[in-house]
Amino acid sequence: SGNYYHQGEIRKKELEQSCFLLGIPASNVTVIDHRDLPDDPAVEWDTQLLATFVLKHIEANNINLVVTFDAGGVSGHANHVSLYTALRYGVQHAPLNTSLECYRVSVVVVWCHVLVLESVNLLRKYLSLLDVPFSCLLPGDALFVLTEEETEQARRAMRCHCSQLLWFRHIYMLFSRYMVINSLRLL
């Protein structure tokens, strides 16, 4: 629930505002507040438990495409890495129309495609649009380049997260390639 600094309620509201700006209905947003999944950059979450929550959400919302972090979590955040690990586990253990038994909860999943956002080194991360030629030359399954309008929409959505906008995130919003270009691969 984003409660690492005891700001869970504030961060939930910020998430709702951000999703609203991106055109995501509140009914499609699920915030998990589970004692075994604490918001903590040093804690790796339980793979099976997290996979169960994610698979339930995928099934309940008929999701056919998920975009997630890669094994590096883009920033090395342990919770981000855990999301990747849980989705990889789900893909490996829940093929089409089968059940996944985790924590005594049975989830029947019609599996979807998973795209993994590729982490890049620090230099490439802050090249912004200058990284486009490198990204075009490197192998990958998908490359998304946002328009100027889409980039501004992403910045507005990020600005909704006031409690997390520390000085380095302002630099991120100005110069990070992830604000304009994202290379992804299929999991």
TrEMBL record:
Q: What class of enzyme is it?
A: hydrolase
Gene3D superfamilies tied to this protein: LmbE-like
Instruction: Report the GO molecular function annotations.
Output: N-acetylglucosaminylphosphatidylinositol deacetylase activity
The GO cellular component terms are: endoplasmic reticulum; membrane
GO biological-process terms attached to the record? GPI anchor biosynthetic process
Q: Which InterPro entries match?
A: GlcNAc_PI_deacetylase-related, LmbE-like_dom_sf
Q: Which domain of life is it from?
A: Eukaryota
E.C. number: 3.5.1.89
Q: Which family is annotated?
A: Belongs to the PIGL family.
Stored PANTHER family? N-ACETYLGLUCOSAMINYL-PHOSPHATIDYLINOSITOL DE-N-ACETYLASE, N-ACETYLGLUCOSAMINYL-PHOSPHATIDYLINOSITOL DE-N-ACETYLASE-RELATED
Q: Return the protein name.
A: N-acetylglucosaminylphosphatidylinositol deacetylase
Q: Which organism is it from?
A: Mesitornis unicolor (brown roatelo)
